[in-house]
Amino acid sequence: MKDIKVLGPGCSNCRNTAALLETVAREKGIAIHITKVEDLQDIMAYGIMSTPGIVLDGKVVHAGGMPSRAKVEGILVG
């Protein structure tokens, strides 16, 4: 199971990013666990200044703006 954190204040891009991750994971048959991190101090601890951010298994893999479907597939499959 992949541990994913979506970093952001709860804006629509953050919610849409989490939904896209869930959709792609379901379609690809990949087990994931998503945690939404909305606390500014926690987000900044990852060095992210622009949200949404995605952290996969402790490593920042995306920051700033809604990721494309292709990028999400690469994050989950790669």
Structure, described:
By secondary structure, the protein is of the alpha+beta class. The chain is built from three helices and four strands. It has a single domain (2-77), classed as Glutaredoxin (3-Layer(aba) Sandwich). The protein has helices spanning 12-28, 40-45, 69-77; strands at residues 2-7, 32-37, 53-56, 59-63. Strands 2-1-3-4 form a four-stranded mixed β-sheet. Helix 1 links the parallel strand 1 (2-7) and strand 2 (32-37). Helix 1 (12-28) packs across helix 3. It is globular, with a radius of gyration of 11 Å. The chain starts with a strand and ends with a helix.
Characterize this entry briefly.
The chain is of the alpha+beta class. 41% of the residues lie in helices and 27% in strands. It has three helices and four strands, in the order βαβαββα.
SSE blueprint:
Layout: E1 2-7, H1 12-28, E2 32-37, H2 40-45, E3 53-56, E4 59-63, H3 69-77
Parallel strand pairs: 1-2
Antiparallel strand pairs: 1-3, 3-4
Helix pairs in contact: 1-3
Q: Kindly provide the radius of gyration, computed on alpha-carbon positions and rounded to a whole number of angstroms.
A: 11 Å
Characterize the largest beta sheet: strand count, sense, and whether it forms a barrel. 4 strands, mixed
Unreliable residue stretches: none
Number of domains: 1
CATH-assigned homologous superfamily: Glutaredoxin
